[in-house]
Amino acid sequence: MKIQGSKRWVVLFFLSLLSGTMVYTPYIRFNYYDQMVVVFTEYKPIVDAANVNEFIGTTGMIVGVVSMIMYIVGGILADKFRERNLIALGGLLLAAGTLWFGLLPDATQILAAHGLLALGVGTMWSAYLKTVRKLGNAHEQGRMFSTSEFIRGIIGTLLGFMGVGLLNRAILPQGVIDPTLVGEQFSLLLFINAGIFLVLSIICFALIPKNLIGNEESDDVEPVPFSFKFALDALKLPAVWFGVVILFCGYSVTAAASGYLGTYTVQVLGIDPTTASSFAVIRNYIIAALSTLIIGFVALAFKSEIKTLGAYLGITGIVIAALMVLGQAPGIGIAIIFIFAFFYTGMRGLYFATLSEMRIPVHLTGIAAGIVSFLGYTPDVFFSKLAGIWLDTAGTAGFTYIWIYAIACCVIGVIACLFAYRYAKKKQAEIDGHSELAA
Question: Which of 17, 191, 379, 381 could be cross-linked to 255 through a Cys-Cys bond (beta carbons 3.0 to 4.6 Å apart)?
Fold first, then answer.
């Protein structure tokens, strides 16, 4: 069954709300890093203060390792089972993991809870991408994915400011942070998020058809039974490997920025943790919502998602260099950081739209997205751990290492986009040639 007309936008809305919530709890350190330090060291003696950055990095590494494995598994599942079942199951796993994390148990259980969260993300991720692709035709992919990212930004904004409001209650009149209140409000935030996962999972299961047919496919298309040969077919496609490199580079920049700009504003610019969290919400959700919507229109103007990503990566590298040179003063630093946010958050609106531009067959979408995610999101595996060690050992000088790494990824990403664009043009020329012969 195809979803057309206004109903597809309703499905896209609720699906995007769920997928937006999906990335909130596993990556909650992006918004409340310094509050988590208080929770783990002062509210409960979960970890020693000297190793807290590494521990927070380890939670990110657990999410990355499990997610990386599940991206492949989830890609296979997305081509083998119904999308709505996987999306609902993933949402329920996320609800369970969030509830467990909210109990703030010992260090081992917190790491295990993050593993469960990653299991939920991996279960629904490829099914989410495949469903979004099926909602639009070949010419609407950039619009569909950027609109989805816009909606994800909206729910992230609401959740983010809800968290800031809750955690702000822990600040006493004299400006002192009460560790007990921080811990209690942090738990409450996670419990609320678990309930949201549960409700949205049920709604998505009810809205998505049992047998979903993509708008790029003919009405009488017969579903192609999954075969493990699909994985081999996908691995042979240059488009998949271009997608891997582009995602790896773009996501590396996002991991550096989302994960450490918040604590950078506290440790280097001298901003208080509550204000820094508010800035993080503005960057990662409000600016992200606008930038991911705008990039869809930019891609339409460029007539290429790949060219647009290449341009964004190039500009991002320049902005990071400006932050390193000019960003020590609070006013200038905050301004550069918000400009930085516009570009690094905008890019995520097009990562998977490039698969359609490079003409990856619809029946390989799940496994192709799984392979690209498996390899492209590997910064989740190592970067938070590495950055945590840099900060623990080098102090604020560790930020220099983080930004140099991000600039290098921007340069490599631009080169990858150039090659990917040439490949996409070649594939389009082949399709046009076949069409002329058929006529």
Answer: 379
pLDDT score at 215: 47
Length of the chain: 439
Per-residue pLDDT tens digits for 37-58: 889 998 888 888 888 888 988 8
Bridge partners for 275 per DSSP: none
326 within 8 A of 247, measured Cβ to Cβ: no
- Counting runs of H as helices and runs of E as strands, what totals does the chain give? 17, 0
Residues whose CB falls within 8 Å of the CB of residue 433, separated by 6 or more in sequence, listed in order: none
**Residue 138: helix, strand or coil by DSSP?**
coil
Cβ pair 221, 361 in contact under 8 A: no
Question: How many CA atoms, within 13 angstroms, populate the side-chain half-sphere of residue 157?
Answer: 14
Angle at 432 between CA 430 and CA 436, to 5 degrees: 115
Contact 241, 227 (CB under 8 A): no
Give the separation between CA 95 and CA 194, rounded to whole angstroms.
4
| Cβ contact 213:2 at 8 Å | yes
Q: Do 13 and 149 meet the contact criterion of CB atoms below 8 Å apart?
A: no
- Domains of the chain, start order: 6-212+227-431 (1.20.1250.20)
End-to-end CA distance of the chain: 30
Does the pLDDT at position 66 exceed 80? Answer: yes
SS3 of residue 140 by DSSP: coil
pLDDT above 90 for 405: yes
CB 13 within 8 A of CB 151: yes
